[in-house]
Amino acid sequence: MNLHPEQLIRVISNEAFHNRKTVVTIFIVVYIAMVALGLAWPKVYTAYTSIVVEEKKVIQPLMQGAAVATDVADRARLAREVIYGRKIMDQILEYAGWMKNNLTPAEHDKIIKRITDKTIITNIGRDIIKIEYSDNDPERAFKTTQKFADLFISETLRAKSAESQSAYDFINKQTEAYHEKLTKAEEQLKDFRTANLDARPGSEADIALRLNQLQDRIQHATQDLKEAEVRKDSLEKQISGEAEVASTLSREGQFRSRIAELQSRLETLRLSYRDTYPDIVQLKHQIEDLNQAIAEDQQQRAAAKASGRVVLNEGMINNPLYQQLKQELSQTKVNIEMLNTRIAEAKRTLAQELELGKRVHGGEAELSELTRDYQVNRDIYQDLLRRRENARVSMNLDIDTQGLAIKIQEPARLPRQPSGLRFLHFIIGGLVLGIALPVGMLFTRAYLDPRIRVGEVISEKRKLPLLAVVPQLWTPSETQMLHREVEWLSLVMSGTFLVVALTAALRFMDVI
What is the Cα–Cα distance from 105 to 111, expressed in whole angstroms? Predict the structure, then answer.
């Protein structure tokens, strides 16, 4: 039935009056039940503390690039991982007194689960963590919350210091390992260079340059040798021709001069003596002997020329031109010997350079590999040295607690009042629920019941005029009974409120 608000209020009021016993009974039952629930409801005391966790703002720019600061994005999540760990929870159980009795492993885990369920860790802002713990014992709630904060701070600093120490130890170990590798690579490189002095970067180019120079020297020396041999042949021919001419001009000329002289004497003697004269005969014999000597000399030169020999005599040896040619020939022969020696030495050096080139070509690859290993180990070692020093600075910062500022901003306090639902809330809630429940039931009944309880509905729905409404008439006995009933209901209500008031007073005085 659709009613206006004022009509609905009037209907509910009439229904409440007609069902007053039921309404009062429901109210009392609900109210007493809520008060009893409030008495039985456990008191929960909540203690909390807030912790500030932040990097040092002064140290950070100074240590930029020299130290690594821990980046904490979700501090509450990290705090839960630390606090809910078995190490801290065991200390909490022992500190708060849960470990006084001998607990089984199942009971131990159950208590830890109950503590974690009652612990709330949240982020307040960017760098503040709030830790809340609820317990029915205020002293235990205070101690547990305080211990949570202390253990979290100490464990965080210890873990960060241990992390820095572990990082430093790891980098230091790697640095020492690469130092050994670098030392070994240096020894191998030194031994190889000692065994192969010519094997070094650029040796092939130097050898190729020396090979080109040696080949050029050999070519030039060979050309000079050919020229010297040609000059030697020429000088030998010149000496041979000069000797022949000199021989002809010297001995034959002497013989012919002697013959001419003897002919002159012979002619002079013939003017005075006959041919039988002994002197004349002797001169003739001398002239014949000289002619015979000239013929023999000519035959000897012809034979020497045919055999390639030169017949020397004292006159030819004393000839200046012959002496000059002989000296030039000697110098040419010496030059030829020098050129032959130079070419042989150059060829021997060329063979050595070729052998060295083959050895260097094979050793340069090994040298390049050893050098590359050395350079790689050196670069890694130097990088590890820098990282080790950075890790050392970070470790020292964490030891001095300079890398991370963590402190208690709001210390835990002993809770004086319980948190959550208190007894007063149950009293007010019982009062409201005791009124709202019967009113709601009456409203539901009025809404679902199709009977007409208000006369205006007839005019609105039927479009008919309403002539009159007959009210309910009470007899004197009914009126008297109604008065007594109302008095009893008022007395019951007053007694209920009095009992609730006494109960509340005793509860607030911690009597019950």
Answer: 10
Q: Is the pLDDT of residue 73 over 60?
A: no
CA 145 centroid distance within chain: 41
Phi and psi angles of residue 74, each rounded to the nearest 5 degrees, phi first: -110, 90
133: left (phi over 0), alpha (psi -120 to 50) or beta: beta
How many whole angstroms separate alpha carbon 414 and alpha carbon 143? 8
**Token pair of 112 as six digits:** 């830890």
Across 340-351, average pLDDT: 85
For the chain, what percent of residues have pLDDT higher than 70? Answer: 75
The answer to whether the beta carbons of residues 500 and 431 sit under 8 Å apart is: no
Helix, strand, coil percentages in the chain from 3-state DSSP, rounded to 5: 75, 5, 20
Q: Higher pLDDT residue, 298 or 66? A: 298
Distances 240 to 252, 307, 326, 450, 474 between C-alpha atoms, Å:
17, 12, 10, 168, 187
The crossing angle, in degrees rounded to 10, of helices 320-399 and 138-195 is 170
- For the chain, what is the radius of gyration of the CA atoms? 69
Report the chain's mean pLDDT, rounded to a whole number.
77
By three-state DSSP, how is residue 266 classified?
helix
DSSP β-bridge partners for residue 46:
134
More confident residue, 142 or 391: 142
pTM comes to 0.47
Whether the pLDDT of residue 500 is over 80: the answer is yes
Specify whether the CB–CB gap between 130 and 50 falls below 8 A: yes
Distance CA 227, CA 224 (A): 5
Q: What are 49's strand-pairing partners?
A: 131
Query: How many Å apart are CA 95 and CA 72, to the nearest integer?
Result: 29
Q: Nearest Cα to 39, choosing from 424, 460, 409, 371?
A: 424
Q: Token pair of 442, please? A: 């009456």
Distance from C-alpha of 53 to C-alpha of 404, rounded to nearest angstrom: 7
What whole-number distance in Å separates Cα of residue 168 and Cα of residue 395? 7
Residue 449 has pLDDT above 60, yes or no: yes
Enumerate the β-bridge partners of residue 407. 52
